[in-house]
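## retry 2 of 3
previous attempt timed out at serialization; input unchanged, resubmitting
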Amino acid sequence: MVERAAVEAALEAAIQLGADGRNLNIRGALNDFRKGAVNKDGLTTIIACVTLALGAMKGSDDPERSSSLEKKQVAVVSLAMALDKLRKML
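## retry succeeded, writing output
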C-alpha cells in the first residue's frame, strides 16, 4: 500500500514538474497504474519517474529535523522497494 502511494506520488510529482510534455505519457501511465493495467511502455515510464524521484530524495538530509528525516527515510525505502518490484515486472 505504501509502495503504491510512493509510485503515485512520484508520477504526480513528475506531472507537476512538467515532465509529461516530453516523449512520456506520464498521465496515461498514472491512470493505467491506478487501474492496474500497465503495458510495457507505461511500466518503463513509471520506472523512470520512480528512479528520478528516488535520486532527487538522496542527500540534503538535515539532522536537526529528525521527524522530517524519518518521513523522508520511509519515503525513500518505499520508493526503492517499489522500484525493485517494478523492475521485476518489466
